[in-house]
Amino acid sequence: MIYLDNAATTRILPQVLEAMMPYLNEEYGNPSSFYGLGQRSKKAIELARESVADVICAKKNEIYFTSGGSEADNWAIRGAAYLGGQSGKKHIISSQFEHHAVLHALDFLEKEGYEITLLPITSDGFVDLDQLKDAIREDTCLVTIMYANNEIGTIQPISEIGRICREKNILFHTDAVQAVGSEHIDVNDLKVDMLSISGHKVHAPKGVGALYIRSGVALPNLIFGGAQESKRRAGTENVASIVGFGKAMEILKQNMDKNNEYVLGLRENLIDHILKEIPRTRLNGDRKKRLPGNINISFEGIEGESILLMLGQHDISASTGSACTSGSLDPSHVLLALGLSHETSHGSLRISISELNTLEEIDKVKEVLPGIIKKLRDMSPIWKG
Amino acid sequence: MDYSDKVMDHFYNPRNIGEIENPDGVGEVGNAKCGDIMKMMIKVENGVISDVKFKTFGCGAAIATSSMGTELIKGKTLKEAWKLSNQAVVEALGGLPSVKVHCSVLAEQAIKAAITDYCQKNGLDCQALTADI
Fold first, then answer.
1. Across-strand partners of B30?
2. Averaged in consecutive runs of 10 residues, what is the pLDDT profile of chain A (385 residues)?
3. Which one of A322, A325, A340, A346 would you mutate to disrupt binding with B, by most B Cβ within 10 Å of its Cβ?
4. Ramachandran category for residue A225: left, alpha or beta (phi over 0 → left; psi -120 to 50 → alpha)
5. Pairing of strands A115-119, A171-175
6. What is the ipTM of this complex?
7. What CA–CA distance (Å, rounded) separates B101 from A348?
8. B34/A309 CB distance under 8 A
9. What residues in B contact A381, CB-CB < 8 Å?
């Protein structure tokens, strides 16, 4: 199998699995328990906390473990909205191409009487800083803009946004789920107040993530109950997954630069080949300010799910912005936000490379993709060869 | 996507793909907005569909239902072809995931559009031709 959907999820690394195993077996203690078995679990999650903090240059007591990126997003957004509401500020600014965990949380807040401004995206996939500045009001209580987009990989001007928000004393959250794996993040330099991380995007298990909350931000709980996570996020800790997450982040810190260089090489190789060998294609989103492993290309005249099925014959896994695979009738909101037509959005293919992919795998894609596109175009009533 | 083996067969090996030179009837339905466009071309001899070809822009289900649709109407009379329902196409394919059933509706519409076009081109009363006596 050639797995090229790393933006959807990543494989757990062997060392990560190894680190987790004792906590799925003989080390089953509850970290809140008094005795040795519990305390060992507690110690393990505190070490993991340090590893996570280290990657984003945060203090360890600013890292709170969650069940993943979606929970982190919901906690940050609903918490900040609550704080705003307490002081009569009920305006929130975000962008049109956020992940649904952000957009749907905002939808809910809108029903609760909050006003939401969703900034448009430029045609090359960025939030416009001038539009952000114009959108800020006296009653803005939160700005939430993703660090890097999951579909088109474009990397947003986070430190500039952080500066703008800090000047105006507005809480700034960023969903960094896609970016943590490849971008050097210093939460202090960036002036972010909250940042979401997801384990399964960085070779850790699914079901674990973290929210960075800057010291001094009195974000209320999303989940109430026991005293876990300094009383800020209740629930007996997912010890094994947290340990795995910590290990993955430790490995990431060591290997990030090397991985990036390698992955970028594969990506450029593949993009160059596709744009050269297959006519009437377009890369969606800026080529340079982009996650090293992300490729998103629209092929004129054909539909994305069909491309995936054809790739499936060669055991190649990728994804698409086509509606057909999403269960809705609209194609990807990200591609539409870029200004692409429905047709072009439906005809998109997303390939996301990780350091586990090989040149042979990329060569295989280069070999089969042109033929697949040609076959589908020959079958299409709207392709005029 | 949970596609049956038959659907996958019709996707990977679509029947009657292509165009007819000087078709007797052409039906094009769907739109790029929805992500599905089907074009069917028919050749009619003595009230029988002697040849049919299709081209489709769309997902696995769209292509498979078009392909099956053409197989089910080839060699049939116009009246029989008109009667083809989307359920018949779905059944012939061994079922479709519920989110994909709408693609089969498009196949039924494409066939009817092609027959309607044929009737219009030949000054025939489509209603009379395809109604039950």
1. B37
2. 97 98 98 96 98 98 98 98 98 97 98 98 97 98 98 98 98 98 98 98 98 98 98 98 98 98 98 97 98 97 96 96 75 94 94 98 98 97 89
3. A346
4. left
5. unpaired
6. 0.94
7. 23
8. no
9. 28, 37-39, 55-57
